[in-house]
Amino acid sequence: MFRHKYTKAQNLRYLLSFPLSLLQLFRHTSKRKNGISVIIRVKDEEDWIAKSLLSLNEFADEVVVVNNNSLDDTLKEIESVKSQLKYKLIVEDEPSDGICEVSNHALSLTNFRWIFRWDSDFIAYTSGERNIKLLREYLLNLNHKKHYLIFPLTLSFAGDLFHVKTGKETNSEGYIHTWHSKLKYIKKGKFESLQVPLFYKIKRLKEIYFVHIGSAKPMKKLLYRFFWLFWLKERDKFATINEFINHISKEKWNGLSPENIAIAKFRELILPIRKFNVNEFGNYPEIMNNDVKTPKLEIIYKNEKPFSRNDFMENIS
């Protein structure tokens, strides 16, 4: 089994959670039903959202999807699998450009004790020893009188479905937690952070129950992801992210096309990568079998080293 490396700060927080969790003796336990709510924030996530939702069938009691101004076929993809879902599906819109507002809205729509902040490009294992149903059993059997913040492991792909980022093959964040009225997403630097009471006990999972598609996405998605946070600071000058990207390409990239900016940032942010080894990381989730057999994206090698990607080569000027 692959061993994930935590930072010193993460290890310190983990150790401190044990004595601090004793404060739970003076706190009221949640009166919510002991089930699992999954929250998903979506914005132009048509590529993987359908399979992501289907992979949760044996795990969730409800899934809350908050749509944040999607312009692609995200909602159509959700509708296409709606009849196959075994849990209650809640879909609402949240037009705010603030990710914390979107997350807190999703949080407010949940109804169960356990909450899992799931990304639309997470794909769960639905069979074998990694079956996400086993994670469900684990969570529901934890002490009902205590509050938890749980860090699951996920395997992240890089560039395509056949590579992982060297040194960052796995990721672990506090995606899973019990409900409390004081839970709130706040802005921390450029990103969001879930603010939880100090008395929450932290647990780490060693098993991998789901994978993260990560940067194995089309060029446009990578480009938007890179510029999104910068655009939010310039909303008063540029009404759309496309206007901002075109401006940046002229002002800071010497007129380089947005496509070539994506290529440049791909090499900077994604590389170095190494090949995904099933002997090391295990097999893919079953629902991804066809994607692996007929991949849309593939890393291109030059002199035996990762150099570019098939869709990038078509756009190099």
Give an overview of the whole structure.
Helix 6 crosses helix 8. The protein contains eleven helices and 15 strands. The strands form three sheets. Strands 1, 2, 3, 4, 5, 6, 7, 8, 9, 12 and 13 form an eleven-stranded mixed β-sheet that branches. Strands 10-11 form a two-stranded antiparallel ribbon. The termini are far apart. With 317 residues, it is an alpha/beta fold. The chain folds into two domains: 205 residues, Alpha-Beta Complex (Spore Coat Polysaccharide Biosynthesis Protein SpsA, Chain A); 95 residues, no CATH class. The mean pLDDT is 91.
Tally of distinct domains: 2
> What class would the helix/strand composition place it in?
alpha/beta
**CATH arch. level architecture of the largest domain:** Alpha-Beta Complex
The main β sheet shows up as:
11 strands, mixed
Strand percentage: 25-35%
How far apart are the termini? 43 Å
Q: Radius of gyration, Cα only, in angstroms?
A: 20 Å
CATH T-level topology of the largest domain? Spore Coat Polysaccharide Biosynthesis Protein SpsA, Chain A
Helix content: 25-40%
Count the strands?
Answer: 15
